[in-house]
Amino acid sequence: MKKVIFFYILYLAVCISVLCIPTDVKTSKSYVEINHIIKIVQNNWESIKDNTFTEIKDIENDFFIIDNNNEIILKSSKDFKPDNNMSVHLKNKDVIVDVNKNNVTVGKIVFINNDKQIYTNKYRQLKLFCFIFMVMSAVVMSVFLFIISKRFLKPIYKIKKM
């Protein structure tokens, strides 16, 4: 009987652990960071356009800056390969912000929306967790049934045979 109680407690612990699955999903866009980048770009537009600007570092969001001729003049990292076709970014629901200097639009900042990738990764993690949980449940229930059959059903069959 002690084994049965042990496996039942183990099973309850596994069930309670399901409640501990993190449900908060941090999206890629930090609006404070985006506003900070916009202000930096607006204040340093001339040095950005001359490719002498290097202040924007350690940014979580992928972004790039284009001028009015749709030429990419700055990107968030060297490995990042942006597409300067705005229709692609509109379909992707990227954040596109005009850069204004003296009330004149001089370019655009495009912040890449990778929320779909984040949600896909979280979904995969959840599927893996559910699979592991189901396997563990099956193992616990099998052990539970084995113990019950050994402890309770075997004596009943012995009595029945007499």
Q: What does this protein look like?
A:
By secondary structure, the protein is of the alpha+beta class. 54% of the residues lie in helices and 15% in strands. It has 5 helices and 4 strands. The chain has helices spanning 2-18, 31-43, 45-49, 86-91, 115-161, and strands at residues 63-67, 72-75, 95-101, 104-111. It has a 4-stranded antiparallel beta sheet. A hairpin with a 2-residue loop joins strand 3 (95-101) and strand 4 (104-111). Helix 1 packs antiparallel against helix 5 (115-161). The longest helix is centred in the last third of the chain and has 47 residues, at 115-161. The mean pLDDT is 77.
List keywords for this structure.
single chain; 162 residues; alpha+beta; 4-stranded antiparallel beta sheet; 5 helices; 4 strands; 54% helix; rod-shaped
Give the ordered list of helices and strands. HHHEEHEEH
The share of residues in helices is: 40-55%
Total E-strand runs: 4
List the total number of helices: 5
| Mean pLDDT metric | 77
Which strand order spans the largest sheet, edge to edge or round the barrel? 2-1-4-3
Measure the end-to-end span: 25 Å
| Stretches with pLDDT under 50, minimum 5 residues | none
Shape: rod-shaped
Name the structural class: alpha+beta
Radius of gyration from the CA trace?
A: 29 Å
Largest beta-sheet details: 4 strands, antiparallel
Sheet-strand content, in percent, reads 5-15%
Entry summary:
The chain has 162 residues and is an alpha+beta fold. It has a 4-stranded antiparallel beta sheet.
